[in-house]
Design goal:
Blueprint (H helix, E strand, L loop, with lengths): L1 H11 L14 E5 L2 E4 L4 E4 L2 H4 L8 H13 L9 H13 L8 E7 L2 H16 L3 E5 L8 H6 L16 E4 L4 H4 L3 H17 L8 E6 L15 H11 L4 E4 L23 E4 L11 E6 L18 H16 L2 H19 L6 E7 L2 E6 L8 H13 L2 E2 L1 E3 L5 E4 L7 H17 L3
Helix pairs in contact: 3-10, 4-10, 8-9, 11-13, 12-13
The protein binds 4'-deoxy-4'-aminopyridoxal-5'-phosphate (PMP).
Family: Belongs to the class-III pyridoxal-phosphate-dependent aminotransferase family.
GO molecular function: transaminase activity
Cofactor: pyridoxal 5'-phosphate
């Protein structure tokens, strides 16, 4: 059945659809951290729709309320609804540092890219600037503004001109740079500072700094201590908004509500999406300091920012994560998986680096010369699929095995899944 669906999709769907050819799968049903395909095969889901199903597939606590809401009202544009206000209050309370209790939320419509566009417009509106500081190895989305601050030139080359005056500074990646973490941070911050502060040749009229606190598509790159704080300092000294893209790293994935909390650094604005709608319902938001709320009515607009079932999903997902202590659980299970992967890589020079926080996990593979080994990661992904575990890849060179299981993954499921990944690592070793 999977084959038939894929054949039909090839005939009638867009050529732009993209998934790895080595996992020939058609989904039918999800439950918790498992997925069933249309042929009845059951998989452990270690990718969760790219970090969407944080509370698990078909979470009953979320679905119960969503079902009720679907029968009642689905769309309210910007008019108030109880779920909308409830979700705003929860997000304003959960926001990190001094954003908590001092923030505003603007919903962005269905995609993370929508929230990124809102954050770019917010920064420009408040500063009157137009230059954007972003980072190498970043991913922020597929719309024109989001593509502009994304660094991957392969994704952008057919769409020029994008936004002008975007500079991509280095994002510290000690493993790839072969530098010690402190030096890597220093080098990155120096370039950001030069970009903003150089009198000649700097970025004219900057509007803000946009950064993933932990890079996702770039390969689960966890910046060393000091980097985000350094950006905070530069932003403060130059009176610029610092914007964190928490679309992949946020909403509990790293074992804190927001990746920013691991570093004790508070942004002026942050984006969230993916897991925000609860059970895969599309919703995104930009949460920003109330001092930046200078917009007037309609200065930023959108039809689908009143998706009531997704808002109900968000409220319920937050409650579920809190009542089941899923942040601590994600930390414990994530630490276990990282440890087990490191053990599996002992004596295997191909497994260069295992990193991440909570259930945001990356394992970077290199060949015997230390170059990115995407073939190995593809082979591991295929082995895992054939043995019942769905895993994802990431990184500029596609050489990072990326794991983003639902936060409800049980310890037992983690053990079974990681054992299969460890087998895949062994089976693909030279
Ligand atoms: N920012 C980050 C950090 C992301 O990981 C993504 C999606 N992978 C986006 C933005 C864009 O989100 P969407 O695909 O929903 O537009």
């Amino acid at each position: 059945k999977s084959d038939r669906l894929r054949e039909k999709q090839n005939e009638i769907d867009s050529n732009a659809v993209a998934y790895p050819n080595n996992i020939p799968l058609a989904f039918d049903e999800g439950k918790g951290a498992t997925l069933k395909d249309v042929d009845g095969n059951v998989f452990l889901d270690f990718f969760a729709g790219i970090g969407v199903y944080n509370v698990g597939h078909a979470n009953p606590y979320v679905n119960e309320a969503v079902h009720e809401q679907v029968d009642k009202l689905t769309h309210s544009v910007d008019f108030p609804t109880e779920p909308r206000l409830e979700l705003i209050e929860k997000l304003e309370e959960l926001a990190p540092g001094n954003l908590s209790g001092n923030s505003r939320v603007v919903f962005g419509g269905p995609t993370g890219s929508d929230a990124i566009e809102a954050s770019i417009k917010l920064a420009k509106y408040n500063t009157g600037g137009r230059g954007l500081v972003a980072f190498r190895n970043s991913y922020h989305g597929a719309t024109s503004g989001a593509m502009s601050i994304t660094s991957n030139s392969k994704l952008k080359k057919h769409y020029a001109p994008l936004l002008p005056d975007v500079v991509h500074a280095p994002f510290p990646h000690p493993f790839q740079e072969g530098r010690d973490p402190e030096e890597s941070v220093e080098r990155a911050l120096e370039e950001v500072r030069a970009t903003i502060e150089q009198p000649y040749g700097g970025l004219a009229n900057p509007a803000g700094i946009f950064v993933e606190p932990i890079q996702g598509e770039g390969g689960v790159v966890v910046p060393p201590e000091g980097f985000l704080q350094g950006l905070r300092d530069i932003a403060d000294e130059n009176d610029l908004p610092l914007v964190f893209d928490e679309i992949q790293a946020g909403f509990g994935r790293t074992g804190e509500w927001w990746a920013a909390e691991h570093y004790d650094v508070t942004p002026d604005a942050m984006t969230t999406a993916k897991a925000l709608g609860g059970n895969g319902l599309p919703l995104s938001a930009t949460i920003y300091h109330e001092d930046l709320d200078t917009w007037g009515p309609g200065d930023h607009a959108g039809t689908y920012r009143g998706h009531v079932p997704a808002m109900v999903g968000g409220v319920r997902a937050i409650e579920y994560i809190q009542s089941h202590d899923l942040l601590d659980h994600a930390t414990e299970v994530g630490d276990y998986i990282r440890e087990r992967l490191r053990e599996a890589g002992e004596g295997d020079s191909g497994l260069g680096d295992v990193r991440g926080k909570g259930l945001f996990i990356g394992a970077e593979f290199v060949d015997s010369e230390g170059n990115p080994d995407d073939d190995r990661v593809e082979a591991i992904q295929q082995y895992c699929y054939e043995h019942g575990v769905l895993v994802w890849t990431a990184g500029q060179y596609d050489n990072v095995l990326r794991l983003l299981p639902p936060l409800v993954l049980t310890q037992r499921q983690a053990e079974v899944g990681t054992e299969i990944i460890a087998d895949a690592i062994a089976a693909t070793a030279e």
